[in-house]
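Job type: complex structure
Entries:
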Amino acid sequence: MSDLHTEILGPDQGGIARAAGILCRGGLVAFPTETVYGLGADARDDRAVAGIFAAKNRPSFNPLIVHVPDLAAAERIAVFSDTARDLAQAFWPGALTLVLPLRADAGIAPLVSAGLDSIAIRVPAHPLARDLLRACGCPLAAPSANPSGRVSPTRANHVMAGLSGRIDAVLDGGAADVGVESTIIGLAGAPRLLRPGGVPVEAIEACLGQPLNVDAPVTDTPNAPGQLESHYAPGAGVRLNVTQPDAGELWLGFGPDCAGATRNLSPAGDLTEAAANLFGMLRDLDDLATAGQGIAVAPVPDHGLGRAINDRLRRAAAPRPG
Ligand code: TXA
Ligand code: MG
């Protein structure tokens, strides 16, 4: 995974066109936003998005933020309430991310939202990010462009220090000036602060004319309660490390030894392909399962992206809170 030559692209038309070309064919490009550098991939391409998790060596699948050039593009992906539109008009382009219901026909890869029915979305203000989004013509999924567990990068050389050899390119736009990530507001129910960030809470409350619910903001700790509740859980029971499913169980396979599997995450045993398929296949199986029918899952090796896959599968198999 560290055999790529990572190109450093200049902040000009040539650099933007090259970055857009790489993204359009499923590659990974780090780009500047006004908050921090993001590691971008085509948000419609599950395999490209799986590549983000592989490059970052992330041990779990957090849902990612989708970046779009303007409100009209955002409205094609998410369902906006009046409140959501007010916030977007007040703070976009800028360091505010809204978590909204995902449109069924949005065409966003399930891995981006970690299988959830909601989507985190923002319009960045950085001119290069905006030029890049227009040039590629697709929404970009982008977490901060750092290896998992390290601080977020605010310069291209920080990105190179962490990810050189693991991504295709970095678009060098100098220093990101906000330096902290975007503020995330959940709008599923009453407006809720999910992560403090670049836009002050007070400014958001002033726009809303009401206080934000600030219980249990999400942290980057995978086991923080706020994050657990934001995970998609199949309705069907899930059993792990099953090499021989019981009669009547649906079987989610991995690798070549799973003949007869209902779905196979990767017949070739490729972890990136498996990650790309994970959430879509869990949903498929959940839809197929009749009442009381369980899902058996083949063992997945616990290295590289396999760690994130197993983390997600363990959550799916854990006893449900009542
Ligand atoms: O400033 C930023 O927001 C940067 C730049 C690159 O835009 N991006 C960033 O992305 O910080 P990331 O992936 O590191 O953070 C995404 C956060 C995660 O904490 C995740 O839990 C939350 O957004 N999130 C994403 N989708 C969500 C959803 N559907 N529901 C709840 N939380 C969500
Ligand atoms: Mg981050």
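Summary: Residues 33, 35-36, 38, 62-65, 97, 99, 113, 116, 118-120, 142-144, 181-182, 184, 194-195, 218, 227, 230 surround threonylcarbamoyladenylate (ligand 1) (CB under 6 Å). The CA atoms of residues 14 and 162 lie 25 Å apart.
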